[in-house]
Amino acid sequence: MIQSDRELIAEIQSGKIESFRILVERHKDRAFTLAVRLLKQRADAEEALQDAFLRAFQGLEDFRGDAKFNTWLYRILYNVCMTRLGRAKPEAEQYSFQEEEREEFTMQIATGDSLPDELLEQNEFITLISREIDQMPEHYRLILTLYYIEELSYEEMSDVLQLPLGTIKTHLFRGRTLLRSIVIEKYYPEVKTV
User: Fold this and answer.
1) CA separation for the pair 167, 169 (Å, rounded)
2) CATH, range 98-187
3) Chosen CATH of 5-86 out of 1.10.1740.10, 3.65.10.10, 1.20.1260.10, 1.25.40.10
4) One pLDDT digit (tens) per residue for the chain, 194 residues
5) 186-to-80, 132, 189 alpha-carbon distances in Å
């Protein structure tokens, strides 16, 4: 039987700290995706993720469960990343995780009825979209990542980013609109937008 995050947290709070490993395994990939989107450097993202998990572990004693664990973790990770960005220095190595991301998106999109050529087209489109999201301004890149990749609700994004719900909806709407216009202009110029 798979334990819920809340059950694992209760175990950790009662002294069974090895249960934290399960939480880390459960949330590390998506959290890493968020860290890479924010920091753009694999090494920085890995360090930020370790720091965020350490802070989460240290703070679990006071975790009340007002938010889901992943929302709480993403808030910690977001703060760690913002601190790193404040003192970041430019480095040469840029990390792209499109291959990993493509697999995750493909699993979400693919159905048992999909034909191989449909999956190939979906993969190509997902790679294209991912590449364009990476080039967007940070606040749109972040909001699109939280919504589409991390699958957070508006309320959860509001908790993570500490922004009003209306601002979240506005950023998401504008981010989608900008992404759509970039993709159409760059890859489908024959499509006329209204």
Assistant:
1) 5
2) 1.10.10.10
3) 1.10.1740.10
4) 889 999 999 999 999 999 999 999 999 999 999 999 889 889 999 999 999 999 999 999 888 888 899 999 999 999 999 999 885 443 433 334 444 444 444 444 444 455 556 656 666 777 778 888 888 888 898 899 888 878 899 999 999 999 999 999 999 999 999 988 888 888 777 876 55
5) 34, 10, 6
